[in-house]
Amino acid sequence: MISLGFYDFFFPFVIVAVLMFALLRKSKVLGDSSVINAVVALSMGFLVMGFPILTGLAYGTELATFFVQSTTFIVILVMAVLIASAFYPDISSVLMDKFKSSRFLYTMLALGIGIFVTSGLLTVFINTNNPAVTGIEPELPGPPSDIVIIVAALIIFMILIIIAASIVRKTS
Predict the structure, then answer these.
(1) Are 101 and 151 in contact (CB under 8 A)?
(2) Contact at 8 Å (CB) between 24 and 40?
(3) Residue 23: which of 120, 155, 172 has the closest Cα?
(4) Nearest-angstrom CA–CA distance, 152 and 160
(5) Could you tell me the sign of the dihedral formed by the alpha carbons of 24, 28, 113, 100, in that order?
(6) What would the mean pLDDT of 101-124 be, rounded to a whole number?
(7) For the range 34-43, what are the long-range contacts, defined as Cβ-Cβ under 8 Å and sequence gap of 24 or more?
(8) pLDDT of residue 129
(9) Gap between the Cα atoms of 87 and 152, Å rounded
């Protein structure tokens, strides 16, 4: 599957398209039309699919590592909840109180950033082939790292705005 480009092209395309469609549909930023949400989500998916070709950077291994680490954490969290349910008869109310706190949000955000860094996905956005650092010219031109960081920050900011808008709509 690696030689067919499954991890570099198909897997990122499907993940981004599905996640973007779900976020757009849930937040209703673009309205109630599923067609518009699908077109935008597919466009984002194709953009991510073209990233390795446009930049010359492959991120399949790092993305697979990220999802393995994330899945491992989720399995550990589910097992902890199952074990805790043996000791707390009303585990759902205890979890709802914990999940609503800002401490839980910050903990999960820190854990996500930690998994992002340890999986190697940070090296995709920060080009290590900088000739000013290594003295060696890169074989393929990479994107300027400051622009990539700004674009990544803008994308993360937009996702946070979408999540915040969906939370505000639920409460009002």
Answers:
(1) no
(2) yes
(3) 155
(4) 12
(5) negative
(6) 83
(7) 41/16, 41/17, 42/17
(8) 55
(9) 43
Report whether 152 contacts 126 (CB < 8 A): no
Distances (CA, A) of 114 to 37, 70, 107, 133: 30, 10, 10, 25
Say whether pLDDT at 71 is over 70: yes
Strand, helix or coil for residue 128: coil
Q: Report how far residue 169's alpha carbon sits from residue 16's, in angstroms, rounded to the nearest whole number.
A: 24
Phi/psi of residue 99, each to 5°? -70, -20
**Helical H segments across 28-126, by residue range:** 34-55, 60-87, 91-99, 102-118, 122-125
In the prediction, which pLDDT does 22 show?
A: 92
Q: Which amino acid is at 63?
A: L
Dihedral over Cα of 137, 150, 112, 40: its sign: negative
CA-wise closest residue to 14 among 39, 46, 61:
46
Whether residue 28 is predicted with pLDDT greater than 70 in this model: the reply is: yes
Percent of the chain topping pLDDT 70:
78
